[in-house]
Protein 1
Amino acid sequence: MRSSRALIPTLKEAPADATSVSHVLLLRGGFVRRVGAGIYSFLPLGVRVLKKIEAVVRDELSKAGAQEVLLPALLPAEYFKETGRWELYGDTLLRLKDRKGGEYHLGPTHEEIITDLVRREVKSYRDLPKNLFQIQTKFRDEPRPRGGLLRCREFSMKDAYSFDVDEASAKASYEVMRAAYCRIFDRLGFDYRVVSADSGAIGGSGSAEFQVLVQSGEDLIAACTNCAYAANLEVAKTHALPRIGPDPASVPAPDRVHTPGHGAISDVAAFLKRTPDNFLKSLVYVAGKELVMAVVRGDHDVNEVKLARALGVSDVRLASGAEVEKATGAALGFAGPVGFKHRIVIDRDAASLTDAVTGANVTDTHLLHVQPGRDFSAEAAEIRNVVDGDLCPDCQSPLKIYRGIEAGHIFLLGTHYTSKMKATYLDEKGEHRTIVMGCYGIGISRLVAAVIEQHHDQNGIRWPLAIAPYQLHLVQLGAEPEVVAEVARLERELEARGIDVLIDDREERPGVKFKDADLIGIPLRVTVGAKALKAGAVELKPRSEADPKKAELVPLANAVETIVARLQALLEGSSKAG
RNA sequence: CGGGGUGUACCUCAACCUGGUAGAGGGCCGGCUUUGGGUGCCGGCUGUUGCAGGUUCAAAUCCUGCCACCCCGACCA
């Protein structure tokens, strides 16, 4: 492809509404344009990247035994009504009506639709297992789209669904998909971790996320520095901490202390000359209609997802200042578990504290010498956030906290959907049994952004070869006949070798072309100009080389072979990454 | 949905506070120049100042309402 004929509108300046690196570079490089909040058009370069990612995904999934289908995006309401998700999904579901007033929605995910297909077509244990996937546009009316392609309301997703005769078989299907996902993420050149995760609204019994590790990621994950343990902070566990404080038997009775104006833990700690880990931090939550106090060590934070799970509710919210003051009878900052009249949940590592300090439920007052279990009773559970340096629950090595982008998520659904939708088969004995299901998602368009978040420098994108929009950027400098002829020869011979070449034949100054080449980020660049041609050579420079002057002179006679060899080496390099 | 912010040319922004004919740079078009990391000079095109009301002789500017977008939080591929 020749740049002079292509639509590759690069921008010198970043549009003001883009903040994430990938968003800025996708706009500046001419890959996408914004149409509305969380709605994007893909330009030619963007489409090429999408297609390359899709090709890798299709290849690995078909190797894993999955078959591609294409389900509609426009869906009658009846399917989601059947499983209750018509109500459950809430405002995230994009609903619409047809001319007759019939209720429809745009598909945010397709468990119901695929299950309906399978229950109609699969009748016998002989028909199982099945694994079906599609690559399709999904619609979710996100409360807050952000970061360009990182979180869209319309986005491309690969979703796969497995159907098995029983749990053991479903688990095997799940493991096959997990392995396929690892190969996909390896081939795409990601630095990623597979982490245990909460199943969330999709439901089901187990799940793992594929988290691409980047500083700008919105998810927090805890990963062991020694073994394979890794988990989303929402579910991460730790080995119990050693007890802090003296022998419980030696702790005197609680004693009030005047702490005027010192509500915050750090303030009181400094005022009382103690460290925050001597404190029991007490937060009042509303779970359903019930008030609950969550108690963690002063240097720890409550994890609301874990708290909700410990309480057996779907979510909790922090009580308002007024609610807290009504419940404790004291100003905000002086709540404590001793004498608290509602349910109390204490974090395991707070329960082992002895001789602790807590709020006294009296304004400007704290209690010293508080002893969990002796002075108040509470249910113990792991309800705090894991922090850097906590110990791995499996091997007790230190955990480290990373930030990540959730790029893939796999679920063991069990019979969550199939039982509601009566998707059954006849077993060998002629008895009806419920199909066991798994589902597997990859955010294809999100991956485009994730790649850039992980592969860029101050000059632009650095695509891994496997998904670069073109494999080679041929930069033509000047328009002397010998330059034009050499460019044409390379174009012909390289394309004959099956290489995707983007040729910058625009009438632009060299600086403009080099800047654009760095911005667009094609992994290998060949420069054809009078200067090198005089020496009978062209210049070769990988995008990964930061030094602008460092280019390799390659004699014309070897140019094609050298380029092919370099691309081969790059491909092997990127598939080893991650 | 809570909090914060922004809407002026294709892009980045100024002018708004203190009302008086809407500007710069980049881009784009033309000319000359330059030709290995966004060349320099000259000329040119581009606007219902987000929308609707209101106040005023006069509104980008002040007031009211609405809309859109971005960022931070609660949710998710």
Protein 2
Amino acid sequence: MDERVIRNIGSSDRIKIGDVAEALGVSKTTVSRAISGKGRVSKDTRAKVLAYIEKHGYHPSPIAKGLVQSKTYNIGWVMPGDSTITDLPFFQRCMMGVIEVAALENYDVLVLMVFDHDMSSLERAVMNQKVDGIVLGRTLIDDERVEFLKDSGIPYVVIGSSPNEDAIQIDNDHISACKELTSVLIMKGIKKLALIGGDSNHVVNQTRKKGFELGVEEQGLDLSQIKIYMDSDNETAVEHIVDELIQDGTECIVCMDDKICFQVLEKLRRDNILIPDQIKIASFYNSDILSSNQPAITSLQYDPKELGSVACRALFDFMEGKEVLRKKLLSYEVILKGSTK
Amino acid sequence: MDERVIRNIGSSDRIKIGDVAEALGVSKTTVSRAISGKGRVSKDTRAKVLAYIEKHGYHPSPIAKGLVQSKTYNIGWVMPGDSTITDLPFFQRCMMGVIEVAALENYDVLVLMVFDHDMSSLERAVMNQKVDGIVLGRTLIDDERVEFLKDSGIPYVVIGSSPNEDAIQIDNDHISACKELTSVLIMKGIKKLALIGGDSNHVVNQTRKKGFELGVEEQGLDLSQIKIYMDSDNETAVEHIVDELIQDGTECIVCMDDKICFQVLEKLRRDNILIPDQIKIASFYNSDILSSNQPAITSLQYDPKELGSVACRALFDFMEGKEVLRKKLLSYEVILKGSTK
DNA sequence: TTGAAAGCGCTAACAA
DNA sequence: TTGTTAGCGCTTTCAA
């Protein structure tokens, strides 16, 4: 290990608006106007100013600007701190979408890790005015965070759906998607199918369940004969349920997300049960693991990054006082693969 | 879709330092001092102020504070924008470590997505003084970003190693780890082993290669007889290499990271080659996929979150003018599993 | 121990 | 079209 030590010296010889003004023999106001484009400045002056700041690398301080405009030029991206490994890529990609759109508006993105029942970091960021707006990455059925944001008065948008009437919501069209995939499976001749679902406190899981039920009903199957398990996204539960379903002669297991599906696949592999020969498998959420599985898994495909960028776009529109749809649903694809052949 | 629209009203009835001062019949200076703890204030006054702000929910504006102190109370976390799916959990966990430590110092974290040859977002954040310091999530052999940070004068810390003498570096002890795992494998009696590696432009990959070579030499094997493939983290390359190695009677394939290992496993599964009976497998980087594989894969285990928090700690120490080690290596574990039995 | 006043770097009325 | 002036909300000399 290198034992050498380093110490920060620090420096601050940044050029400021007054320097530019002085050098050019104009007022600070003029410089400010030339840069922002607000107010009238002659073409010549403007060109002169722009040339100068370009050459001398002048960058207006967003802190000073922020002080007078009460803006931070940051938006907050709220991520669940307890995301499991399988959730991470989803949130990461959403975040990329948010960041991309934010950059277009010269905004940066502050990450706020929030745990389901500790939102102190969110509170801090909002109360301390560290951000001008918030994108919430996931909604819960009974979401204190949404309540808090609503009360705080800060502009916010949620990804996913919320029972809160006031929230601007961007979501995948889970209900149509799940309904469609379920219908398709039944149309392929499957009569005995079952659904294994995750945390029933997540809005998305309730929505998927609803979509599944609609699909079943649409195809005229008796819903009361169909097994639906919720809160089963752990190995022990899955183990149990799969055993039960196999016993029962289930033709197709529909998994609510990729994590559950992965666990089902592991279980079936351990038991040497062949897909799709002995049982068919489908998933309401796709992931790399599922699509590279042998056989690949029939599933629904969404675009998380799109979700992030649309949400961020909506947030900016809202902040700028434009009218914004209260709820926007993004499209999906049904991907039929070998697991339901 | 809900067609209702929503429009932002906006509000700003926040209490400020002057209000507190007036209400208490003291000066703004006194309030400021009572809060910051700097300068002398009587116990009573201090208590009075603290009680008042607590009761009335006063939050000093970090923007105003920032303006006078030239601070943003934000640090920048630089993530490669082109991270592949397998990298994501690593960076995400690192980031969590960074965020946790930052929160202790009342700092927030700004995410900067930087692509290998486009670092405009990093430049913008630094030039616009959006952050007080930077944690760089990955280093390249020839890293423009490190050069830029060095020249800019902003405090920064890199995760991973950098040829740059001036950079404060926090890294896993890849070289010892890889050397140790390689040695252990050879001590188990393996004589014919091979290494499949990724992007040779990543510092970490060069380091792992070096560790592998040291392990081979330590055990007295002839390095020139050992096959080492670099830049092979794609399916076609892996396909080819594995065929070659099997032909060649290789006893053990060592994979430089979990992504490569995953591809090797897929390939072997397709070809119905059994692990560890027909070939043994080890990986220089662990992940959930590998540890839940059947059989579980022998690998090296690190703690990405620790990496993030140690890096962030070092950054703060440096910003506060403390002495900081130029390079710090974190420990690892060798996890022996069924894949090399 | 406290306060008055200046100023951080910028923008935005209001004048000219 | 341009400049003057007054802040934004806080901290920090300097003086009391």
